[in-house]
Amino acid sequence: MSNRVVCREASHAGSWYSASGSQLNAQLEGWLSQAQSTVRPARAIIAPHAGYTYCGACAAHAYKQVDPSVTRRVFILGPSHHVPLSRCALSPADVYRTPLYDLRIDQKVYADLWKTGLFERMSLQTDEDEHSIEMHLPYTAKAMESHKDEFSIVPVLVGALSESKEQEYGRLLSKYLADPSNLFIISSDFCHWGRYRKHFQSLRKKRSSLLFLSFFSPVEGQRFRYTYYDESQGEIYRSIEHLDKMGMSIIEQLDPISFTNYLKKYRNTICGRHPIGVLLNAVAELRKSGLEMNFSFLNYAQSSQCRNWQDSSVSYAAGALIVH
Question: I want to staple 85 with a disulfide (CB 3.0 to 4.6 A). Which of 72, 80, 147, 209 is the partner?
Fold first, then answer.
């Protein structure tokens, strides 16, 4: 076997976030300085994965809850936006590059996960095309910089899982969530509202396919078509916020069945719904043994305020899970 180190390049640097390490560091410090450390140390966080211009400030509220002094392994669960996937997939890389410093994949945990037979291996091209995991790498590097030689990462690409698969992966990962030295990052934006995708096309990379997940169909033409509107809430953006916060409240209850029922009822285009579902099922498994946990959302934002049917927006939320 070859001993060559396989590196995943920071393929979205220079477009979705700065490729300059010094500039990126200053931006991250600025956003983090505006956030409060209120529920630290987090065992898991939910944070967005859009371009930092849109969601960097929101994500800081989740990353501010990370305690680098206790964290030795960071699991990053992100949804697959570009390839059809019915299970979860592991990266072929050994190292993930960021403009700040390189992050090392925990190959021992990867080997253990691979042995379960529940995981696929994604190609390096798929890995580099996908943004849902990469957008958390600079923030992870920044949050962990005081212990940068003392931790590893476990990136997991999450497919369009059935309810039973979410339960299965939740049970599998629950033993890792129970370990105080592990941190779980759940990558998700919230409502993608609009009739089509023009809102963020300036952020598309030529080598990537579409920016947004195909929510209910792999067919390109059916992406980002969601116009739920509850007129009783007032302006469209108020309706979107009400819808999102309904879902956020259910997530805070840590009830995977209620979250699934919410998604079935409203079809809210929460692109990380399957990673969230895996987390909720892992929590449900640990609660059986009496472990007490609380989840709190700390920030909510929208890329723009939709007021008419020609508008579009994406919502972002940041929150943290505490184990007592």
Answer: 80
